Structures are given as structure tokens and as C-alpha cells.
């Protein structure tokens, strides 16, 4: 009995590590987006989507099978890090597609299997329990990724996106504030990291605004032909 | 036999205190909830749309703030008379946040710092220990100092939103605040907050410097800066 449980724990843990690695890969893929052409962007997005689907269909499903007829809370610690990283990748992809944050329900649906028609074998729906805590921790990690993405957008000249991310991050900061004090060490730590990345983004938007005001002063003559020039100028910032 | 009696008196004391503490913590929790709601609303001023709608945000905060006196009243009923400082640490942080929110709202609306009495009144408290449940002077000072960080953030964000005159106002306000606090020789915790104020002032001055350097200083402020 005990050995069986330990083996199961071990197997889930291993799968969870694979999920972490592959989710990280998805995130790196998405980070390549700023500065590339529209077609490359499309292909990056779709390859990220495929990879995510693959993670769901193989690794997540594997965990779900292991968890069948078990109390998932017993094994939560085995897969918590993997699922957090997965939520991070999933929500990052979702954000780039829609510009908003994925809801807990939608995320849970992603890791619930067996409702689909193709799964005749599974009578009981399989699912990986996604606790609200894991969800929120994943979202907290997302803020760091958004910060990096935003900084990268500055360096490639996609200013609109940069302002947009800044606004989203501020709204998220408000959201985290509304939670009040949470007696969870992990989240507290992540909040600190989030605050510093929010700071960085705000600073970046601020200096962007300053630089923007410089440009017209330098070349007042063709203010209206500026848009293209602005793009080029951005590479030297 | 005596020994057992000694322990049992202590035991019942502990029990009573645990009960009291629970009551206080329950009341503080309600207060906390409101204070977080206000902070969340105030956070909106940093958004691009928020900077243009500061008045609306302040009105929203006022609505939340009207609930506060009743909550302090409830807390007061839980704390036995004469034991204010025994439970002080339970609600200090929340009080700081509420004071900071009140100060920030008053600053945004009227461009000035509210007095100790004024803040106490709006929270439904008095200012002296002998009058009952009061707003400790140090709590007031702590609260006022915490707005410096928010203001320096607001200075940066208002530049992003294209409002170039606000950083100049904020710098002036922080300068006055700094000058006033320098007279106090703050110690311990206050000292830490005071350092934060210095840092915020420095940051705001940098913003002002950057704006002036690029000729973005608004016309009507040309003489006052």
C-alpha cells in the first residue's frame, strides 16, 4: 500500500517536472514574438498552442489518470510546481491572443478530460484538480513574463503594446490588492517580485513618453511622416 | 492543593483573554476589508484613464470611507476600556492604511495635507487618550508618510498619461512635507518611513528635472517652479 502510494507520488512528480520544462519552452517561444513579422508571429503562436495542447493531452492526462479514484489533495504537492508553470504558459498565450486574463474555470476546463466525444474509454471524466491557489500563483508568475514582454516591446518599438501591458499590470495590481492580506508565504514573495516588475514597467512607460516628446523637437518639419521614422528611431533607444 | 488553584486562576485568565482577542480580531477583520477596498479603488488613479477621472475615484472612496466610523465603533466595543495599547498592534497596520487613504484623497481633492483632528474625525475617532478610542499621533504620522510612495508613483504615471503639470504639484507638496518632517527628528519606525519620503521626493525631483530639461514644463507654472 505504502509503496504503491510512494511510487504514484514519484511518477506524478516526474511528470510534473516534464510539464515545467515544456511550459517554460512555450514561454520562451512566446517571448520571441516582439519584433518579428506578422507571419512569423502567427507561426510562433500556433506552435505554442500546439505545444500547450500536447502538454494537456499527454502529460496532464497522465497525471489525471494517476489521480483517478484518489483524493487529489494527497498528491497536490507532487504536481503543484508543474501546474503553476503550465498556468503561466497558458495564461501568457491566452493574453497574447485576447488581451485579457484566463479565468479559473476556463483553466480548469483545459485540464479536465473525458467530456470530449473521442474519449469513449473514459466513462468518468478525468481531471487534474486545479486549486484556486495554484491558479493565482500561476497568474502571479504571469506578471513577471508580461514585464519582460513589455520591456522587449519597448526595444522593438511596439509602444502601444507597452502601454497596454502597463495598464493591465496596474489593473492586476489592484486585483491583488483587493485580496488583502493572504497568509501564504509564496504569494507574499511573489507580490514583492510583482511590485518591482510593475515599477520597472511604469518606469519604462515614463521614459518612453519622455523620449517620444523629444522626437518632434528634433524633426519638427515632418511631424506627420513621423510614424515610420519613429519605428526606426526606436531601435537606437 | 494551592498549586492547583494558582494554575486554575491563570488558566481562566488565559481563556478570557483568548476570547477577547478573538472578538477584537473579528472586528479588525471587517475594518481591514474596507481598508483594502479603498486601497483597491485608489490604485485606479495610476491607470491612464484613472488619472483623468480622479474626482470620480475620490467620490467612490468617500462612499467606502463612510462605513469606517461604524466599524471603529464596533472595534471599540470589543476592546476593554483602558486597554487600548494592549490591542493596538492588532489594528495599527489597518489604521495606517486608512489614514494614508484619507490623506491621499484630501490631497487629490484639495491639494493639502489634512490635520490630525480632521483625519481622526473622518474615521470616527478622537485625538486624545482621555477622550476614549483615539487615533494615535504616531499612527497619523506614519499614515501621512506612506502617501509619499504613492505620489511619486503617480508623478511617473501622470507623465505616461501625458499630464505634465501634476509632477510639479507633487514635487511642491512632497517638498513641504519633507521640510515639515525634518523638524521632527523622526526615530525608529518613523525614521524608516521618513527615509522613504526622502527617496520619493528624490524620484519626483528627477521627473521634474527630466520634464524641465525637455521643455515640457507647463506654461502657467513657469514662474512658480
From TrEMBL, chain A:
<keyword id="KW-0460">Magnesium</keyword>
<keyword id="KW-0963">Cytoplasm</keyword>
<keyword id="KW-0539">Nucleus</keyword>
<comment type="similarity">
    <text>Belongs to the translin family.</text>
</comment>
<feature type="binding site">
    <location>
        <position position="145"/>
    </location>
    <ligand>
        <name>Mg(2+)</name>
    </ligand>
</feature>
<dbReference type="InterPro" id="IPR016068">
    <property type="entry name" value="Translin_N"/>
</dbReference>
<dbReference type="GO" id="GO:0046872">
    <property type="term" value="F:metal ion binding"/>
</dbReference>
<dbReference type="InterPro" id="IPR002848">
    <property type="entry name" value="Translin_fam"/>
</dbReference>
<dbReference type="Pfam" id="PF01997">
    <property type="entry name" value="Translin"/>
</dbReference>
<keyword id="KW-0479">Metal-binding</keyword>
<dbReference type="GO" id="GO:0005634">
    <property type="term" value="C:nucleus"/>
</dbReference>
<dbReference type="InterPro" id="IPR036081">
    <property type="entry name" value="Translin_sf"/>
</dbReference>
<protein>
    <recommendedName>
        <fullName>Translin-associated protein X</fullName>
    </recommendedName>
</protein>
<feature type="binding site">
    <location>
        <position position="88"/>
    </location>
    <ligand>
        <name>Mg(2+)</name>
    </ligand>
</feature>
<dbReference type="InterPro" id="IPR016069">
    <property type="entry name" value="Translin_C"/>
</dbReference>
<dbReference type="GO" id="GO:0005737">
    <property type="term" value="C:cytoplasm"/>
</dbReference>
<dbReference type="GO" id="GO:0043565">
    <property type="term" value="F:sequence-specific DNA binding"/>
</dbReference>
UniProtKB/TrEMBL annotation, chain B:
<keyword id="KW-0479">Metal-binding</keyword>
<dbReference type="GO" id="GO:0005737">
    <property type="term" value="C:cytoplasm"/>
</dbReference>
<dbReference type="GO" id="GO:0046872">
    <property type="term" value="F:metal ion binding"/>
</dbReference>
<dbReference type="GO" id="GO:0005634">
    <property type="term" value="C:nucleus"/>
</dbReference>
<keyword id="KW-0963">Cytoplasm</keyword>
<dbReference type="GO" id="GO:0003697">
    <property type="term" value="F:single-stranded DNA binding"/>
</dbReference>
<protein>
    <recommendedName>
        <fullName>Translin</fullName>
    </recommendedName>
</protein>
<keyword id="KW-0539">Nucleus</keyword>
<keyword id="KW-0694">RNA-binding</keyword>
<keyword id="KW-0460">Magnesium</keyword>
<dbReference type="GO" id="GO:0003723">
    <property type="term" value="F:RNA binding"/>
</dbReference>
<feature type="binding site">
    <location>
        <position position="150"/>
    </location>
    <ligand>
        <name>Mg(2+)</name>
    </ligand>
</feature>
<dbReference type="InterPro" id="IPR036081">
    <property type="entry name" value="Translin_sf"/>
</dbReference>
<dbReference type="InterPro" id="IPR002848">
    <property type="entry name" value="Translin_fam"/>
</dbReference>
<dbReference type="InterPro" id="IPR016068">
    <property type="entry name" value="Translin_N"/>
</dbReference>
<keyword id="KW-0238">DNA-binding</keyword>
<dbReference type="GO" id="GO:0016070">
    <property type="term" value="P:RNA metabolic process"/>
</dbReference>
<comment type="subunit">
    <text>Ring-shaped heterooctamer of six TSN and two TSNAX subunits, DNA/RNA binding occurs inside the ring.</text>
</comment>
<dbReference type="GO" id="GO:0043565">
    <property type="term" value="F:sequence-specific DNA binding"/>
</dbReference>
<dbReference type="InterPro" id="IPR016069">
    <property type="entry name" value="Translin_C"/>
</dbReference>
<comment type="similarity">
    <text>Belongs to the translin family.</text>
</comment>
<comment type="function">
    <text>Exhibits both single-stranded and double-stranded endoribonuclease activity. May act as an activator of RNA-induced silencing complex (RISC) by facilitating endonucleolytic cleavage of the siRNA passenger strand.</text>
</comment>
Amino acid at each position: 500500500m505504502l509503496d504503491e502510494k510512494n511510487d504514484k507520488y514519484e511518477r506524478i512528480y516526474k511528470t510534473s517536472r516534464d510539464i515545467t520544462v515544456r511550459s517554460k519552452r512555450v514561454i520562451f517561444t512566446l517571448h520571441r514574438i516582439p519584433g518579428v513579422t506578422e507571419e512569423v508571429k502567427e507561426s510562433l503562436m500556433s506552435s505554442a498552442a500546439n505545444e500547450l495542447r500536447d502538454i494537456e493531452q499527454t502529460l496532464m492526462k497522465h497525471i489525471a489518470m494517476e489521480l483517478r479514484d484518489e483524493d487529489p489533495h494527497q498528491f497536490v504537492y507532487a504536481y503543484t510546481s508543474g501546474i503553476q508553470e503550465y498556468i503561466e504558459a497558458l495564461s501568457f498565450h491566452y493574453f497574447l491572443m485576447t488581451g485579457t486574463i484566463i479565468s479559473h474555470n476556463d483553466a480548469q476546463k483545459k485540464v479536465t478530460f473525458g467530456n470530449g466525444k473521442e474519449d469513449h474509454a473514459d466513462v468518468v471524466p478525468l481531471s487534474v484538480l486545479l486549486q484556486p491557489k495554484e491558479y493565482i500563483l500561476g497568474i502571479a508568475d504571469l506578471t513577471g513574463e508580461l514585464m519582460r514582454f513589455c520591456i522587449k516591446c519597448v526595444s522593438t518599438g511596439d509602444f502601444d503594446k507597452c502601454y497596454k501591458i502597463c495598464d493591465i499590470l496596474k489593473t492586476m495590481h489592484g486585483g491583488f490588492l483587493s485580496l488583502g492580506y493572504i497568509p501564504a508565504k509564496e504569494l507574499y514573495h511573489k507580490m514583492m517580485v510583482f511590485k518591482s516588475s510593475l515599477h520597472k514597467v511604469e518606469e519604462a512607460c515614463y521614459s518612453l513618453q519622455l523620449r517620444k516628446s523629444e522626437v518632434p523637437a528634433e524633426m519638427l518639419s515632418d511631424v506627420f511622416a513621423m510614424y515610420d521614422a519613429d519605428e526606426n528611431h526606436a531601435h537606437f533607444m | 492543593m494551592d498549586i492547583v488553584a494558582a494554575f486554575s486562576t491563570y488558566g481562566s485568565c488565559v481563556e478570557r483573554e483568548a476570547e477577547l482577542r478573538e472578538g477584537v480580531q473579528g472586528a479588525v477583520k471587517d475594518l481591514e476589508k474596507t481598508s483594502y477596498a479603498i486601497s483597491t479603488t485608489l490604485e485606479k488613479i495610476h491607470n491612464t484613464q484613472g488619472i483623468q477621472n480622479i474626482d470620480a475615484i475620490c467620490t467612490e472612496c468617500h462612499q467606502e470611507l463612510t462605513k469606517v466610523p461604524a466599524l471603529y465603533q464596533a472595534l471599540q466595543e470589543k476592546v476593554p476600556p483602558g486597554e487600548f495599547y494592549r490591542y493596538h498592534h492588532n489594528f495599527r497596520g489597518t489604521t495606517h492604511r486608512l489614514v494614508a487613504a484619507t490623506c491621499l484623497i484630501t490631497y487629490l481633492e484639495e491639494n493639502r495635507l489634512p490635520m490630525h483632528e480632521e483625519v481622526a474625525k473622518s474615521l470616527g475617532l478622537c485625538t486624545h487618550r482621555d477622550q476614549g478610542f483615539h487615533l494615535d499621533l504616531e499612527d497619523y504620522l506614519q499614515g501621512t508618510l506612506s502617501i509619499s510612495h504613492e505620489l511619486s508613483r503617480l508623478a511617473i504615471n501622470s507623465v505616461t498619461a501625458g499630464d505634465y503639470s501634476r509632477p510639479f504639484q507633487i514635487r511642491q507638496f512632497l517638498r513641504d512635507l519633507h521640510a515639515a518632517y525634518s523638524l521632527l527628528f523622526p526615530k525608529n519606525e518613523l525614521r524608516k518611513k521618513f527615509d522613504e519620503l526622502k527617496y520619493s521626493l528624490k524620484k519626483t525631483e528627477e521627473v521634474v528635472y527630466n520634464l524641465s530639461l525637455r521643455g515640457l514644463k507647463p506654461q502657467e507654472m513657469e514662474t512658480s517652479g
